[in-house]
Amino acid sequence: MRFDIVTLFPDFFTSPLRSGLLGRALTKQIASVHLVNPRDFTTDKHHKVDDEPYGGGVGMLLKPEPIFAAVESLPVLPPREVLLMTPQGQPMSQPLFQELATQMQQIVIICGHYEGVDERVLHLVTREVSLGDFVLTCGEIPALALLNGVIRLLPGTVGKEESLKLESFEAGLLDYPQYTRPAEFRGWRVPEVLLSGNHQAIAEWRKAQQIERTRQRRADLWAAWVEQHSADESAQS
Q1: Domains of the chain by range and CATH?
Q2: How do residues 42-65 score in pLDDT, each as one tens digit?
Q3: How far apart are CA 191 and CA 175, in angstroms?
Q4: Distance of alpha carbon 35 from its chain centroid, rounded?
Q5: pLDDT of residue 170
Q6: How far are the Cα atoms of 50, 51, 102, 105 from residue 47, in angstroms, in the given order?
Q7: What does pTM read for this prediction?
């Protein structure tokens, strides 16, 4: 899979793209990441990429011309998405990462800055994406999160692909509690069922923990899971 990141700060990605899971995936050519700077496509002597908003207001907006030129300079490998990182977009989620990882050949990510981008940039964009209901200083932070979330789902990135099916959000539930040695630490013992060797009992305990943890911590996920669970049971009856 090819990723093209339109960013004013390519150096932001230098270390993350060389480290850990992302670095290994790129080395193994599971994915490729290409950085393009809109400033390289400006035509004025000051390489200006931002300007004041029409109608007044606080802050600056990214101009449309450099962004259009940067995106239009890229190869097109369909199917592809052109994503704009913005607080107004669709919140990132595991289903979104799964969709992009399985259905796309190319993902172009436009990183916003300042007070955002000129509205006409949206004519380039197929989807607006948000890291959450808060404002950050730059779009590179959510872009890196999306890179990580999608690339780790590509075949060959994670050593034990079975682990991807058992983690939080994959079944609409949070993950179950996990423990390792020692069996007792400062008076806190590992639950006996995990030491029993009874795999069926362990699986049942883990599922019960997922359900209870989701119910207690994430009312939104719990409501969605209950609705889906009820619909599945009705379809089977």
Answers
A1: 2-151 (3.40.1280.10), 166-236 (1.10.1270.20)
A2: 999 999 999 999 998 888 999 999
A3: 16
A4: 18
A5: 60
A6: 9, 12, 38, 32
A7: 0.87
